[in-house]
Amino acid sequence: MKLQIDNLDGSGLRDYSGNVDASSLPKLFRRLNRPAELHVSLVATGPDFIVPAAGARVVFGMNVRPISGQERFTGYLMQEPTYEYLGWGERGPIYRYVFVAFGDEALLDEKRLPERPPFVERSAGSALRQLTDDLLPGVFDASAVQDLDKLVGYASTTQKTWLQQAEEIATQARACYWVLNGALSFAPIGSNVYPLNESDASFNAAGLKLQPVNKVINDIIVIGENEPQAYVKDYFVGDGLTTRFYLSQTPFSKGTTTVFDEEYSNTTLEPTLWSTVDPAEAIAVSGGKLQVAGGTGSDGGTIVQFVEPVELGGALVMQHGDVMFSAPSSGVLGGLYTGAVSLNNCLAGFRITPNGSQSNIQAAINGMPTGSPLTTIATHHYLLTTRLYSLEIYRRQQVFHSSLHPAGSGVGGAALPADVRIVLEVHDIDPANPGSEVAPSTVLYDGVFDAAPEFCTYALVNAANMKCNIAFTRMLKAPDAEVRSALPGQSYRTRLVGPLSTGAECNVTSNAEVGFYSSYVPAANELIEVRYRDSGRAMARVIDSQSIAAQRRGVDDGVHGAVRHIKLPQARTTEDCENAALALLDDGIGPAWAGEYAIWSDFLPGDAPDIFPGDAFQINVPSRGANFPVIVREVGISLKDLQGDHCIYTIKFANEAAELLAFEFDAAQLSVSLDPPELTNTQIGQTYLEDLTEAEVTEVDSTSISIDVGPAPLNGGGFEVRWSDAGWGPDNDRNLVGRFTSESFTIPRLSRVQDCYLRQYDASNPPKYSRFSTALHVDYPL
């Protein structure tokens, strides 16, 4: 055994092996996704003994086979040792110095993480590497950090430590991390598998304890987050006076939150927000502005790019900034790209081209100039804003893991297709005219992208030769509602939602109403359309019929139920709840085992050089009826022989039927009704038809409402319309309006304010229906 301590006094590592108290030998504890702990007692053996100080680095190695002197622990003494009085000696009082050192990663926990936007579409390993590099750049070797599954979204916060966030990331990826000698490793649970066979000559039967756990679950209700549900379209008519229109439902909202707000108050770009490509050194930050002075002369040569992808879901407002041009310019500002940052890949952005001594600002759509350009004026400022609206709030399913679906092959993760409306607007501000601050913005483009990509790259600047400064850049999650209106005889246009100072025309309040600003009151007979999703609690119930049948005994009907409110990974939708239930049933229906194994270091299972939490044992002990895999949860190493460095490993393990690895549950009780439809594990993904997201009202008169649902009816199926969102199915006509087998149809109008709900159905027996309804609300004068 060799114990070395660097007291950071400039003398380097000192050998304290001879000072180890033989009556209290070192013990090393390793726990899954926790820092290792080394417990050591020292006794002074001479006048040159230096008491280890807080912050000292500790290196502990043992001559454990197969490598003599191999390090088993490296870390730091986070507090001063404890003094235990032993008596009086020739030189005065004698003490035992007791300390606990924590693994290298404990150093990261002493630092405060910086503010950063949420990780989007990042692999778990990439997020862990980034958090580590944010705190101590270049200190830890992260070459052994594997990428593993992508996280659909992970919000890092300064209110949690590195250790807390590393544990959360590991949980979502069903992975484990460990740190030794400054090297950070991150790998799937069970990457190392060792056999534990009673037929092996080194097997220690007395050291093996196995405990069966009665935890069969074959009927599970999973409760998730509030989710977007019915697709709602509200229709109103302006009268020239009314400024507030009350919505039929409370819109689903993730809340109006700021993804980031960059004021360029430092002398460099924030690395947590931006990455740059700047060979011409055209990018600088000074005077509270981002300065762009030139470029490489080529598309994609000078770039200021946001560090995270942008999810094209829900409502998003991207304020690229208050831009002032100092000379004719060329390039793209505020571009969304479907690949590398270049004009050909630009889904939507503001194309800047020279025009004499000024510049033109024009929409760039799918790489092509679109619509009329706006010519800049000297001394004017231009606020460039992109607004995105999608009825699909999330564009990718969450991923869940189990022992049957480990890291890299989880349940879920499917892309969610959606149409996205993109609006590009310019607010022209004349400093000499205060009224221009609240003047209407100029809309350069307003269109829908069918089957838009789920994620895009965002580059604030793609400069070929740009001469401008940008005063701020913001990205906001806006109220998830789209407001459009049409004057009599004209086409619909998007009404800009947000604060009046940004050139917006209306706002959607928390009281479920649309309020128009006084300058933008809808005219008489102006048609108004508001599209959004209502909300409800995501929930699913899934059963395993085979397990239920196998568990029937006597009066026991075989149903073993449970309710789980998932905290991590977040179950954001009902589909997520179903996938989480499948993952939970993977392990819930099997036998549950826990236990521990004690063995001398010379006889570790499978000739393993060492054992870490997250390793797997394949237990094969026929005399105890045991043949199953387990995962190591904790390892205790107790040194028993100072000279020979022999030690005892006490290894605690369990399978996931006994202790889950890839979930964290919320213990809080929710006041929700637990009545989701019962599905078997074979029905998931096979039960529901597509929702009628395109259904809309096409005409309203005093006695009827005309509806176009969008798609043609399925063969043998049709569209069911009801007065309320309940009773779906062929056996209930209580609130039925009718069943229609054509794409367009008319229903009776009975009052000024009227609602109806639509779902499609097929020819199955019993018929399948859409998962969520489409709600059409009409508030027109009779």
Structure in words:
Helices cover about 5% and strands about 45% of the residues. By secondary structure, the protein is mainly beta. It has five domains: about 1-105; about 110-190, Baseplate protein-like domains (Phage tail protein beta-alpha-beta fold, 3-Layer(bab) Sandwich); about 195-215 and about 590-655, Elongation Factor Tu (Ef-tu), domain 3 (Beta Barrel); about 255-480, Jelly Rolls (Sandwich); about 695-780, Immunoglobulin-like (Sandwich). The strands form eight sheets. The protein has a 16-stranded antiparallel beta sheet that branches. Strands 1, 2, 3, 4, 5, 6, 7, 8, 14, 15, 42, 43, 44 and 45 form a 14-stranded mixed beta sheet that branches. Strand 3 (about 25-30) and strand 4 form a beta hairpin.
Short précis:
The protein has 782 residues and is mainly beta. The protein is 6% helix and 45% strand. The protein starts with a strand and ends with a strand.
